[in-house]
Write a structure and sequence with these properties.
The chain is α/β, with parallel strands linked by helices and 282 residues long. The chain contains 10 helices and 14 strands. The strands form 3 sheets. Strands 1, 6, 7, 8, 9, 11, 12, 13 and 14 form a 9-stranded mixed β-sheet that branches. Strand 11 and strand 12 form a beta hairpin. Helix 3 runs parallel beside helix 4 and helix 5 crosses helix 10. It is globular and about 60 Å long. The two termini are 19 Å apart.
Length: 282
């Protein structure tokens, strides 16, 4: 399921596990952009300061992450080969319900079906927003549907702001992201580049009510080719904290304008134009 024999140009070669899940005894889970490598905690400097995010989940929602982990662990097994007793022992923890505001809904996305849940959740946030949508993403390689949803939100008066890296980890993805700048700016989207380094966070927060934190980038790989996961939150107390983190990050960014787009290096512009044809593979 990860590398089947296909023609050379097949996108199947991009199938990989991009999820970041840590579950502790069934009562606590962590989900976000943070991998187990030194640059993610700025112990080493590869692309300037590394900006990342994650959420800690407690209670019954943790079981969803346990199930996602077990699903991936047993991915190469036939259903008849899976020991139900072995699965159930990891699902026995049942936390006592506590009074909590709002909703926390973990979800996973899988390239083996036709349900592109990651993209649908993002589009739903843009389509339902009334005041603002604030995004942090390391990559911006959009298909027509998602780009239209972003632009339409801005055109109907929603404040749409996107933070992207100021220092890229992949020059090809960096060049492709810039091919979207002019069109988004024309629709009123605010674009910022994180000057201290690389933004690896995957955050989408809207109207002080809804937010998504997880592993899903705004690019073809995450939306179509990867095994992904995220946490959808609505009406919970940490939404304000997520928005505050966005605003603190904006202070460290340079704003993209029509002038900065014109001043971009010619080689970056040409690379982005040439890579458009193979964008779904990048």
């Amino acid at each position: 399921m990860f590398a089947p024999a296909k023609p050379f140009v097949s996108t199947h070669y991009n199938y990989r596990d991009h999820r970041k899940i840590l579950v502790i005894d069934g009562h606590t889970a962590f989900n976000g952009g943070v991998n187990l490598a030194d640059e993610y905690i700025n112990e080493i400097d590869r692309f300037g300061h590394w900006k990342d995010t994650a959420v800690m989940i407690k209670g019954s929602a943790v079981k969803s992450f346990t199930l996602m982990f077990l699903q991936m662990w047993n991915m190469d097994l036939k259903p008849t080969d899976i020991d139900d007793a072995d699965i159930k022992k990891y699902l026995e923890y049942n936390p006592q319900p506590k009074e909590a505001e709002g909703f926390v809904i973990p979800y996973g996305d899988c390239p083996l079906d036709d349900d592109k849940l990651g993209e649908r959740v993002y589009m739903d946030i843009f389509n339902r927003a009334h005041k603002y949508v604030h995004v942090m993403t390391p990559y911006l390689i959009l298909d027509g549907e998602l780009e239209t949803a972003i632009k339409f939100a801005a055109e109907r008066g929603v404040e749409v702001s996107i933070i992207l890296p100021g220092i890229p980890d992949k020059k090809s993805a960096y060049s492709l992201a810039k091919t979207h700048y002019k069109s988004l700016l024309e629709s009123g989207v605010n674009i910022f580049e994180y000057t201290p380094g690389f933004v690896h966070a995957k955050v989408c927060v809207s109207d002080d009510i809804n937010a998504v934190v997880g592993t899903i980038n705004f690019d073809y790989r995450s939306l179509y080719h990867h095994f992904e996961c995220a946490t959808y939150m609505s009406g919970v107390g940490c939404i304000d904290e997520i928005e505050r983190d966005f605003q603190e990050t904006v202070k460290k960014c340079r704003k993209v304008t029509f002038e900065t787009v014109k001043e971009e290096k010619l080689m970056v512009k040409l690379q982005g134009i040439m890579l458009k044809a193979v964008a779904p593979l990048l």
